[in-house]
Design a protein that fits this description.
Protein name: DUF7670 domain-containing protein
Order of helices and strands: HHHH
Strand content: under 5%
Helix content: over 70%
Keywords: Membrane, Transmembrane, Transmembrane helix
Pfam families: DUF7670
Organism: Zhouia amylolytica AD3
Shape: elongated
Length: about 120
């Protein structure tokens, strides 16, 4: 079915931009996550600080989970992804200067959130 109004076309464009960017970010995060987890040469047995454990739960785990959920429930997934990134930036303020990390989840998360708000607005 073709979008009929300019509003619907914009909404569809935002949705597809969100889906494509989320798929790329998911692939990117999974690549590095699986590479890191499969690193057999790492024999460092030092205790991991609690702050780093929370940071790992938020990014990549929370962000990845949120972006995957976005494909099923846009608003819920986008809130999970965005909140994971915001809490990560509160816990690790040194990461705020890394714009690549910030943009990874924020761009698709915000696009999915905008689309869900526009879709809800169109229902009324």
């Amino acid at each position: 079915m073709e979008p009929t109004t300019p509003h619907e076309k914009i909404r569809k464009t935002i949705l597809w931009l969100a889906r494509i960017s989320a798929a790329l970010v998911i692939a990117f995060i999974l690549f590095f996550l699986l590479t890191h987890l499969s690193n057999q040469g790492n024999t460092d047995n030092h205790a991991i600080p609690t702050k780093d454990i929370f940071a790992f739960i938020l990014f990549p785990i929370g962000t990845l989970l949120g972006l995957i959920v976005c494909f099923i429930r846009e608003r819920t997934g986008s809130i999970i992804a965005l909140m994971s990134m915001i809490i990560l930036m509160i816990i690790r303020p040194d990461l705020v200067s890394n714009l690549l990390l910030l943009s990874l989840a924020f761009i698709p998360g915000v696009l999915f959130l905008i689309h869900s708000l526009l879709r809800e607005e169109a229902k009324f």
